[in-house]
Design brief:
Blueprint lengths: L1 E6 L19 E2 L3 E2 H11 L4 E6 L3 H8 L8 E6 L8 H5 L7 E6 L2 E3 L3 H11 L3 E11 L3 E6 L2 E7 L2 E14 L14 H9 L6 E5 L3 E3 L3 H18 L4
Parallel strand pairs: 1-4, 1-6, 4-5, 8-12
Antiparallel strand pairs: 2-3, 6-11, 7-13, 8-11, 9-10
Length: 237
């Protein structure tokens, strides 16, 4: 089983923590980098190889991870010379990817079963499998429904339930065939194209622990919670 970790972003939303470090290497719990946790989880799940898509401060990631042997993985690299969007880096490495593989952001903290995601993707026959997580948003205002200048409905401080993408996907290599290497490709563009096709993405619903470390508040929460969830996040790793 092979995984691609997207680790080329600048981590602008996480500044000042990412001023000198790439986001996947910021420490969690004063002991582990986010990327180290992910690599340990992948190895424990049975993955044997991994490609790191690097860009901003990529030389630091390369120096830290090396060939991945200390985690029992074979790690290689794909360097992003210019911003290519979330899925664009996959196009430049398409010829060396297996038929199906896992793709994930390098800044998520979760106990998601990556092996099961990939196996479920293979059995689904879908071009893309998106891991999803339930979110509830509380709106602290009275919400009005209007029509032609008249108020026709009112809800006091409602809650909205929806599912979000977790930043981990099962992907089939042939899904990338329609796109040109070297050109940007966003996750949104890929999903919308597939929704217009006769073979839409598959959803993998997850209700365990998940935290997207995108902002300073998320990073502070990750550090505050890591001691509590350490055994869960690193079980078998």
């Amino acid at each position: 089983m092979h995984a691609v970790i997207l680790a080329g972003g600048k981590g602008v939303r996480l500044r000042p923590y990412t001023t000198a470090l790439p986001k996947p290497l910021v420490p969690i719990g004063d002991q582990h980098a986010i990327l180290e946790i992910v690599l340990r989880q992948l190895a424990a799940a049975g993955f044997t190889s991994c490609t790191l898509a690097i860009g901003h401060l990529g030389q630091i990631i390369r120096a830290y991870v090396g060939n991945g042997s200390r985690w029992g993985l074979h790690v290689d690299y794909s360097n992003e010379e210019s911003p290519l969007g979330t899925m664009g880096p996959l196009l430049t490495m398409r010829d060396r990817l297996p038929d199906t593989f896992l793709v994930m952001n390098g800044d998520i903290l979760t106990d998601l079963d990556y092996r099961d995601v990939l196996l479920r993707h293979r059995s689904s026959g879908a071009p893309l499998t998106i891991t999803t997580y339930a979110r509830k948003v509380h709106i602290d205002f009275g919400v009005l429904t209007t029509d032609a200048g008249r108020v026709v409905g009112f809800t006091e401080k409602p809650s909205v339930d929806y599912r979000v993408s977790m930043g981990a996907y099962g992907l089939s290599r042939e899904t990338l065939d329609a796109y040109t290497p070297g050109l940007p490709l966003g996750f949104d563009e890929l999903v919308l194209d597939l929704l217009r096709s006769s073979n839409p993405p598959h959803a993998y619903e997850f209700d365990g622990y998940w935290l997207d470390i995108g902002r300073p508040d998320d990073y502070d929460r990750a550090n505050a919670e890591f001691t509590t969830y350490r055994s869960l996040l690193l079980k078998g790793a």
